[in-house]
Specification:
Number of helices: 13
Low-confidence stretches: 236-243
Order of helices and strands: EHEHEHEHEEEEEHHEHHEEEHHHEHEHE
Number of domains: 2
CATH architecture of the largest domain: Alpha-Beta Complex
Bound molecules: cytidine-5'-triphosphate, magnesium ion
Shape: elongated
Oligomer: single chain
Strand content: 15-25%
CATH superfamily of the largest domain: Spore Coat Polysaccharide Biosynthesis Protein SpsA, Chain A
Length: about 400
């Protein structure tokens, strides 16, 4: 086996915008062109360009979705993919992407996911310009329309269009130049070239491409749809298996010590007369293990990502709250729950008599997905055997909705 060299090029694909002007009821990158989203089309072309680290920047809650799209587009290059959450402005989103670049990356490309049909060759052109010694290079297209300067409803001047070009992406930069420009930026710019120019660097113009147009409005989307209908993405052999929506599994474990106040809460049930578990919430190790398993299955991080102690609203919360919120996160990322299996290791409480009740409570909190609960003692060994606490282990299966 050969180990691929760490790429010297990093591509930040910004996809964290809300798509207000498109008005499709979902973040723009997640709107479909054909059977595939805008993001997926953009990534198909990114991965057809020469090998690079690819950082996809998405709205919060869309990480799992974006990761699935990126892994499908990446094929054998799946190790090159990462997903981060963006910010309120495009500039903040690029900044978030910069933070995820590997140390070996020397040339950074910033690309709008909204320019979904940009051909791979444009990526090569901007990189070649940096390799030729430029600090910054952007693709441009000549302006075709006759341009006028207007003031309200009055034409006040003709503008010589031969001086004008429309800027596109991917825009390429020497990494040190881009990082410094970002660190020192005091205003918000609509593209990275403007920010780097403001920092005093010359920007090279290379040939853009008509297909690198930005999908901004509904008519742009229509244009993209007719172009894609004429040349749909051919599923590569290496990718076929992913196209049939392979289910995903996740593993979660949790441990809580006895010593909390009030009654015991475990597996979504109250257990009168049993000693309570301690924890930021109700200490329900069974519910928390299930949450971790579900989030892991969907690639959405773990319980600390979404329910950490910095979320006071979850103090004292019970299983139904945790599981309902987790179900919501999975739904936003396009997953539904197949089933969950959870095992408790504890001396007490005794589950035999209440197993069906626990399964029903947990299943109800997960919108009816089957949940199996099993319980075991540990033959007196370890902390569960010593009666110090409870351990729970969960496996969850999710499928793309
Ligand atoms: N973008 C981003 N983070 C933001 C805003 C924009 O990553 N806070 C990305 C968009 O996802 C898009 C690119 O920057 O790929 C260009 O932005 P634009 O076309 O303006 O997209 P939106 O901001 O989503 O659209 P709108 O302005 O209509 O809301
Ligand atoms: Mg915008």
């Amino acid at each position: 086996m050969t180990i691929a060299p760490v790429p010297r090029v990093g591509i930040i694909v910004v996809a964290a915008g809300s798509g207000t002007r498109l008005g499709a009821g979902a973040p723009k990158a997640f709107v479909g062109i054909d059977g595939h989203t805008i993001l997926r089309h953009a990534l198909e072309r990114v991965f057809a360009a020469p090998s690079a680290q690819v950082v996809v920047v998405v709205p919060s809650g869309r990480e799992g979705d974006a990761l699935s799209e990126a892994l499908e587009a990446a094929g054998e290059r799946r190790d090159l993919v990462s997903v981060v959450v963006g910010g309120q402005t495009r500039q903040a989103s690029v900044q978030a992407g910069l933070g995820a670049l590997w140390a070996d990356v020397k040339i950074v490309l910033v690309h709008d996911a909204a320019r979904a049909l940009t051909p791979p060759e444009v990526f090569g052109r901007v990189v070649a310009s940096i390799d030729a010694g430029r600090a910054a290079a952007i693709p441009v297209l000549p302006v075709i329309d006759t341009i006028k300067r207007v003031d309200g409803a009055e034409v006040v001047a003709a503008v010589d269009r031969s001086e004008l070009s429309a800027a596109q992406t991917p825009q390429a930069f020497r990494r040190d130049v881009l990082e410094r420009a970002y660190a020192e930026a005091v205003a918000d710019f609509t593209d990275d070239a403007a920010l780097v120019a403001e920092a005093g660097h010359a920007v090279a113009a290379v040939a853009g491409h008509p297909l690198a147009f930005k999908i901004t409005t509904a008519s742009d989307l229509d244009r993209a749809r007719s172009l894609v209908a004429a040349a749909p993405i051919a599923p590569a052999a290496a990718r076929l298996e992913h196209d049939v929506a392979i289910p995903r599994v996740g593993l979660g474990t949790d441990v809580h010590a006895f010593g909390g106040d009030g009654p015991l809460w475990l597996a979504g049930l109250e257990w009168p007369g049993e000693p309570a578990l301690s924890g930021h919430s109700d200490g329900d190790a069974v519910a928390h293990a299930i949450v971790d398993a579900l989030l892991a299955a969907a690639g959405l991080g773990d319980i600390g990502t979404h329910f950490g102690t910095d979320h006071p609203e979850y103090a004292g919360a019970h299983a139904d709250v945790f599981l309902a919120r987790t179900l919501g996160l999975l739904g936003e990322a396009g997953f539904r729950v197949g089933n969950v299996s959870v095992q408790v290791q504890a001396n007490r409480p005794r589950f035999a008599a209440r197993r069906a009740e626990a399964e029903a409570a947990l299943s109800a909190a997960l919108g009816g997905a089957p949940v199996s609960v099993s319980a075991t003692t540990t033959d007196g060994l370890g902390f569960p055997g010593a009666g110090e606490g409870v351990a729970a282990f969960a496996v969850a299966l999710v499928v793309k909705a």
